[in-house]
Amino acid sequence: SDPSANSAGSLRPGSRRSRRDAVDLLNRFDLTIVQHEYGIYGGRDGEEILDVIAELRTPPIVVAHTVLQSPTRHQRRVLDEVTRLAGRVVVMTRAAQRQLIAGYRVDPAKVTVIPHGAQVRAPGPTAVAGHDGRPLLLTWGLIGPGKGIEWMLAALDDLRDLRPAPHYLIAGQTHPKVVAVAGEAYRDMLVGRASRLGVGPSVGFDATYRDVDELGRLIERATLVVLPYDSPDQVTSGVLVDAVAAGRPVVATAFPHATELLASGAGIVVPRQDPAALAAAVRACLTDPDRLGAMATEARRLAPGLSWEAVARRYLALVPGLVTTRAVR
Questions:
Q1: Beta-carbon-side half-sphere exposure of residue 81 (alpha carbons within 13 Å)
Q2: Helix, strand, or coil here: 33?
Q3: In this structure, which of 92, 179, 226, 308 has its CB flanked by the most CB atoms within 10 Å?
Q4: Is the CB of residue 112 less than 8 Å from the CB of residue 89?
Q5: H runs (alpha helix) in 198-254
Q6: Beta bridge partners of 61
Q7: Are 118 and 307 in contact (CB under 8 A)?
């Protein structure tokens, strides 16, 4: 076996030496997969990754995690160049594919849709009572403005008459970039709002870090996963995929990935920033066990296609032709 298979390197923002070392390391392999997100590489809008991609001996598979509807001119230029240098471009939803082809200078023949993967466990029963005999509503992930949790707190105020009353758990740490700028201001605002609305006893905040297995067990306890996101641009949500892969019914706001993945009935999609619509959807699920069960059944039907094994097979199908030919520059 190639000893480089166990190699690891770091790409440090602002370091030309680091970029050269990264190129040398990656060129020991037959193929590179680049996970593209504006905020994870150095330079303005992550433009330093272009220096790396341009020097790869084999055109990479680029996975575009963010495809903005209204990018700045520079953001558009960076993604245009990334896709030009790529051998194949993967997006995780059809919405992202349409947006990329319509709004950017990319060869449509390069673009393939492969869903975000997830760990798919053996399906369990639909959880009717997940917290001390009460329905468990779950939102999780890195917490920060834009998650829309404040709207779900307002929705919870409209659900006080339900018996048993649902418990709403917000699981996850505050996003480190949010902490760096504003500390725990968003989380503190949520705690204060829950108290002022009088729903504090029905809301839990849990910042415990969980590994994949622990998170999977938490998701399986949920009666309903709630994703009240504010963004109209979110074309990929790993949290949404994890929820469906776990066979959990979902209530989500109308961000593109939710609209697409839940269209066949695994969830309910509601307008963004609309507590009344959130409350109505949650009520419809919690008061109709047959509907809740049908949503869970549809999520379990979708789950196998979201498994990492299924996703890996689709990536492997992109490889022929890339490892023997260098893209025209």
A1: 16
A2: strand
A3: 226
A4: yes
A5: 212-221, 238-245
A6: 33, 88
A7: yes
pLDDT digit string (tens) for the chain, length 329 residues: 454 455 677 888 888 999 999 999 999 998 999 999 988 899 999 999 999 999 999 899 999 998 988 899 999 999 999 999 999 999 999 999 999 999 999 999 999 999 998 888 766 555 554 557 799 999 999 999 999 999 999 999 999 999 999 999 999 999 988 999 999 999 999 999 999 999 999 999 999 888 888 998 899 999 999 999 998 878 888 899 999 999 999 999 999 999 999 999 999 999 999 999 999 999 999 999 999 999 999 999 999 999 999 999 999 999 987 865 554 44
Question: For 23, what's the count of Cα atoms within 13 Å in the CB-facing half-sphere?
Answer: 17
Residue 195 to residues 149, 164, 220, 307: CA-CA distances in angstroms?
Answer: 14, 20, 28, 40
Q: How far apart (Å, rounded) are the C-alpha atoms in residues 294 and 266? A: 8
Q: Give the integer Cα–Cα distance in Å for 245 and 250.
A: 11
Q: Alpha-carbon distance 11 to 131, whole Å? A: 43
Phi, psi of 318 (to 5 degrees): -85, -15
Cα–Cα distances (Å) from 36 to 67, 71, 72, 103, 295, in that order, read 10, 15, 17, 17, 33
d(CA 273, CA 64): 27
**Dihedral over Cα of 205, 199, 226, 301: its sign:** positive
Q: How far is CA 290 from CA 127, 285, 296, in A?
A: 12, 9, 10
Total residues belonging to the chain: 329
